[in-house]
From TrEMBL:
UniProt source species: Thioalkalivibrio halophilus
UniProt-recorded name of the protein: Transcriptional regulator
Matching Pfam families: HATPase_c_4
Highest taxon of the lineage: Bacteria
Amino acid sequence: VGQRWNITNLGAILFATDLDRFDASLSRKAVRLVVYDGRNRAAKVSHRLDGAKGYACGFEGLVGYINDIVPHNEHIGRALREVRPVFPELAVRELVANALIHQDMTITGAGPQIEIFEDRMEITNPGRPLIQPDRMIDLPPRSRNEALASLMRRMRFCEEQGSGLDKVVAEVELYQLPPPWFRGDDNSMQVILYAPRSFANMTQEERIRACYQHAVLKFLTGGERMRNATLCERFGIDSRNASQASGVIKHALEAGLIKPADPEHPRAGYVPIWA
């Protein structure tokens, strides 16, 4: 009652209506959103949002705001025309939740940041990744903030089990987008989501990464194997041009990311190199 109360740091970071009323170790953990009118940080800033609410209070509003301001494309389904954000809503939701949960709270002066460019979205959180980036899709997450992660799971802001990154990759494949890029350094973890781009306009590195991620998803689905036909479907390649998918598989093999499921039977398909 009155001034006779206290709140834990966990309670504040989740439920505060104004994080600026707390000390810098908490207030700097508010989410920052910047939208640029171009492809780099030299472009004009069209939207800027310095979040003030705790994660539980502000999460749904933040995700909704992002989905409202990103560009939208018209998708023609079997019966209806739908207008959808260029970045899949489920992917955005999972990645924002992951950035909040897996950040390093001991790094002062830095918090989760979302930057939206004309051709991509970059979601960054402080703290080096605890799992090798190319294994984040299949390995169980290791969280620095288990109490925060547990509460956000119970409030259904994120996956009950796993990191949810398999869902992110599955959504990207469904929309036939360039593959997300998971990258980390000693101080931060970043995920980049890309806007729609055709197979012809993807770089070789992106094609190889997409091939590896596709093989991982297949393997996680009951040990299924990636095949030339499934990769064609992932990229939207016509079956008459299947040699294009074969070329990507060849490069992924050379990069040491995938391997034949059965070396004695070349048509048996492919699995991730660690399988």
